[in-house]
Fold this protein.
Amino acid sequence: QVQLVESGGGLVQPGGSLRLSCAASGFTFSSYAMSWYRQAPGKERDLVATMSSAGKSTNYADTVKGRFIISRDNAKNTVSLQMNSLKPEDTAVYYCKAGRGSSNYWGQGTQVTVSS
């Protein structure tokens, strides 16, 4: 059974940091690109960051470049998102996704709220 379980969300003040983690099981983690998406209320789900299966390439949305860092540990089947210099507009539900060709798996999401 495929599972992606996100953790680490919460309430943080503007300028603060959070680290999200996603624990994967039930599939060959090291064969899948891993991504973080986010969805704010009333908006579409948008790509935040992607890392290739071996971890050799990354891609970031322009809105988070220089502030967020995606990483993965293929030995532990985890992917993380370090979020720094958080802004109120980063408030959203954050989802991790595993993707390989037409095969995609999603986590249930974790809420991140940036507010003073």
In short: The mean pLDDT is 97.
